[in-house]
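re: ur question from yesterday

yeah so i grabbed the chain u mentioned. its 274 aa long if i counted rite. heres the sequnce exactly as i have it in my notes:
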Amino acid sequence: MKTRWRRRIRNSTLFLAIVVLVVSLFTAMQTALWNTTVYSGWFLAGLVVLLASYNLYKKVPFLPLGSSSTWMQIHIYAGFLTAIVFPLHSGFRVPNGFFELVLAMFFLLVFTSGVVGLFLTRTLPPRLATRSEEAIYEKIPGLIHRLKTEVEEIVFGCISETETAAVPEFYMRRLKPFFEQPRYFWSHLFHSERAFKTLLTDIGEQNRFLNETEQEAMKNISQRVAVKNDLDYQYALQSTLKYWLFLHVPFTYGLSILIVFHVLLVYAFSGVAS
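ran it thru and got these structure tokens back, copy pasting raw so excuse formatting
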């Protein structure tokens, strides 16, 4: 823990020093009447290339290019630096024209999705560790199907033993939809147990009208309901960690392409090379 905090303090101090240096250089260049738009634009483009290269690095982790944690730290702080350089490059003005508006929107989408992703990757994994043993994401649907099969076997066994329909009717009405697929996605994501507790309350109320055999069956079903709820929790959090990249990465590549077109347009129509 102490090592982590020392690293964060060190990285934050270095980042602040770089920000001060960048702003100071930008101010000095403006004072000297240099074309700051060109230099800040190339610097911003370089940062975007650096950010996009992190995803490429993850595809070739066997190359001696540094540790993944180091690349992640560079990625995070380079992303925050773009939030300083972008307004310096744009002159703190509203985008002028359709292309500039699209470019600014893509930048905001990349930056916002990156910040959201940073929050998710820092908060969701510790939450996963607080529940039951973590299941492999791809195996969760199969585990849920197995639980559903076990519950239905208990329900059918209850029919043959008691010749009553109380448990089967409750299963069809209240539990079958629960076991058919992952449920309560948003509740789990926002750490709410309200929906699950409502289900447990319904099970408890149903027990009041059951005989001893049916109550034993419901006890066995309830155990599987709890396991299913844990799987749903893991599915919700792991899905979020997995699929936010499907937004962030394409936005980053889209921004990179737009920057290439932006550079070509600037040099084609302005004739400014310095």
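noticed a couple things. The mean pLDDT is 89. also The chain has two domains: 2-130+244-270, 137-239.
anyway ttyl
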